[in-house]
Amino acid sequence: LRFGSHSNLFSEKFIHQGFNLERELRLLFFGRILNYKGIDVLIRAYDLMVKKGMNVELTVAGEGRIEDWILREIKRLNINLINRWITEDELLEILKGTDIVVAPYKEASQSGPVSIATALGIPVIATKVGGLVEQVLDGINGILIEPEDPETLCKAVERVYYDRNLLIKLSEGAKFLSRSQLSWDNIVKEMEEIWE
User: Fold this and answer.
1) pTM for the full predicted model
2) Backbone dihedral angles phi then psi of residue 161, each to the nearest 5 degrees
3) Which residues have CB under 8 Å from 123's CB, separation 6+?
4) Residue 28: beta bridge partners?
5) How far apart are CA 126 and CA 9, in angstroms?
6) DSSP one-letter string for 108-129
């Protein structure tokens, strides 16, 4: 069964700042920082984006051990790093200005951060691993890519960087799916049908 969207987490307080065509594209990785979540792939992809002259901003927010070479790259590339536990209020403020959540996992069951993002109408770029393929429907609420491939991740970001209308379409799709197919009411109905 699918992992439903966290549509109730910030629903009362959340107002997105909008997908502004005139400013940088804001990317966010959030959650516990663990090796399987592909931070190394994300950093390499971000380096490619910078080399291509893309006006992008990356924030990595969450608690975890980060390898020394990754820390050096984060500093060199001016990536915003918040390497500690993030409170709900802090996360809410970060998400308000986020255009895309990136989940470059190397393996996964499902993802809480993906569920939170899509429930708030923030599109996700995620890898085709585990249950992420049930949470992110390619071209509907996000973009699916192959795992451990920085170039493909860079190209997926480029798609929305040069087509902000696609970003808006994915955002609307995320909101719709969170209220329908990925709503907990719908998932409970599916579970009841299976038990019956």
Assistant:
1) 0.86
2) -65, -40
3) 99, 100, 101, 117, 141, 142, 143, 160, 167, 170, 171, 173, 174
4) 59, 101
5) 21
6) -S--HHHHHHHHTT--EEEES-
pLDDT in tens, 73-103: 999 999 999 999 999 889 999 999 999 999 9
CA gyration radius, the chain: 16
Q: Contact at 8 Å (CB) between 62 and 30?
A: yes
Give the integer Cα–Cα distance in Å for 102 and 110: 14
Q: Hey, is 29 helix, strand or coil?
A: strand
Beta-carbon count within 10 A of 69 CB: 10
Paired tokens of 136: 């992110």
What is the widest separation between alpha-carbon atoms in the chain?
57
**Tens digit of pLDDT for each residue in 29-63?**
999 999 999 999 999 999 999 999 999 999 999 99
Q: Which of 152, 114, 155 is nearest to 134 (CA)?
A: 114
